[in-house]
Amino acid sequence: MKKICIHETDNTNKGSEADNHARLQANGNSRQASWHWSVDDKEALQSFTHDYQCWAAGSTKGNNEAIQIEMCVNSDGDYVKTVQNTASLVAKILKDENLTVHDVVQHNFYSGKNSPSKMRSTSAPIPWSSFLKMDDVMKFTNETLKAAVRDYLKQAVDKKLIDKLHLEKFDAGTLTDGDFKGLEIIIAQRSK
Question: Does residue 127 have a cis peptide bond before it, meaning omega lies within 30 degrees of 0?
Answer without folding.
Answer: no
